[in-house]
């Protein structure tokens, strides 16, 4: 698992020990992600399936893409498609992915790179493996997270951030046994490169077998932990938790994770997790397909604009307040 690795964790800043008076976040639920197919047929795990949107807020959706070893000719992507009203965050751990959008954003990401696309008022984009990967085949693994936008930002002009792996904030756990890659937000005094419209944090952590990780966590954020590989434990009661599972944590000031001492051979690195948290937006969510708005009328307007060729094209931005429906519904 390339992502971002460091040969010597001792050179990194360490997370300060959690204060004894800090309230540890208890486990509210643990769910297993079902498998599915996305785009032209690449395999995904639906990380948030079955979880109430109120527990996810400000996040909407997350797919773990792969992990899959493609044979020559097998790599797949998505055709051109629209979005409005939220942001997509595409984080590649293994493999290569190309992105292009109707506003000129895009490029190639690989091994720890992230593409952060703000759809805002509307954008069209395509995501696909480059031709050389289609020819050769190879390992592919990553995530796409959907982050909701508050109503005041839903019709902002589209924007794009290209976050290179070299920009990711790096630190280690208090015991020196965990590598934390901070993609967005501030964790333990280290800030990630992602610029966000709503306060949030996104961290990819690898916890060595037998290691533990305690993180201070903003009390106004929710807390979600998704295990991409390995076996471990989560919460103050150390509930068992492993590959393909999402833990939703309750209120508090800190969170606790640990990796089982004994791991399956393929998980020799330990427990690999994505940790997410954000300040809930607490607004109505109307979601259909590629559009996430506040009302059903706004979603219908997005479909109408897309079908009429008005969505995702420069010069067709929609003035705030004219998208249809009422913002107070």
From TrEMBL:
InterPro entries referenced in this protein's UniProt entry, alphabetically: Pirin, Pirin_C_dom, Pirin_N_dom, RmlC-like_jellyroll, RmlC_Cupin_sf
Record-linked Pfam families: Pirin (PF02678), Pirin_C (PF05726)
Pirin N-terminal domain sequence ranges: 43-147
Keywords: Iron, Metal-binding
Residues annotated as binding Fe cation: 81, 83, 125, 127
Names of the cofactor(s): Fe cation
CDD domains reported for this sequence: cupin_pirin_C (cd02247), cupin_pirin_N (cd02909)
Record note on cofactor: Binds 1 Fe cation per subunit.
Annotated Pirin C-terminal domain residues: 202-311
Annotated GO MF terms: metal ion binding
PANTHER family xrefs: PIRIN, PIRIN-RELATED
Family per similarity comment: Belongs to the pirin family.
Name of this protein: Pirin family protein
Organism: Pedococcus cremeus
Native organism taxonomy: Bacteria, Bacillati, Actinomycetota, Actinomycetes, Micrococcales
């Amino acid at each position: 698992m390339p992502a971002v690795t460091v040969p010597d964790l001792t050179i990194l800043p360490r997370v300060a020990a959690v204060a004894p008076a800090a309230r540890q976040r208890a486990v509210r639920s643990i769910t297993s992600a079902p498998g599915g197919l996305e785009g032209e047929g690449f395999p995904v795990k639906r990380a948030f399936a079955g979880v109430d949107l109120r527990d996810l807020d400000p996040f909407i959706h997350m797919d773990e893409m792969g992990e899959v070893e493609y044979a020559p000719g097998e790599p797949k992507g998505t055709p051109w498609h629209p979005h409005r009203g939220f942001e997509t965050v595409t984080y590649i751990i293994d493999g290569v992915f190309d992105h292009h959008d109707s506003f000129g954003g895009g490029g190639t990401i690989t091994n720890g790179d992230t593409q952060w696309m703000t759809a805002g008022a509307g954008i069209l984009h395509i995501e696909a493996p480059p031709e050389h990967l289609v020819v050769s085949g190879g390992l592919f693994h990553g995530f796409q997270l959907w982050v909701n936008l508050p109503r005041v930002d839903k019709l902002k002009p589209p924007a794009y951030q290209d976050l290179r792996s070299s920009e990711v904030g790096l630190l280690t756990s208090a015991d020196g046994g965990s590598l934390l890659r901070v993609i967005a937000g501030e964790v333990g005094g280290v800030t990630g490169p992602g610029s966000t419209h709503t306060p949030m944090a996104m961290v990819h952590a690898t916890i060595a077998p037998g290691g533990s990780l305690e993180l201070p966590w903003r009390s106004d954020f929710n807390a979600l932990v998704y295990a991409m590989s390995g076996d471990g434990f989560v919460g103050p009661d150390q509930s068992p938790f492993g590959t393909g599972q999402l833990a939703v944590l309750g209120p508090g000031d800190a969170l606790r994770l640990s990796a089982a001492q004994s791991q399956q051979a393929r998980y020799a690195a330990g427990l690999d997790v994505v940790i997410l948290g954000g300040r809930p937006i607490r607004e109505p969510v109307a979601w259909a397909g590629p559009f996430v708005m506040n009302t059903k009328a706004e979603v219908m307007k997005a479909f109408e604009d897309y079908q009429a060729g008005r969505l995702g094209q420069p010069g067709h931005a929609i003035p705030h307040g004219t998208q249809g429906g009422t913002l107070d519904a």
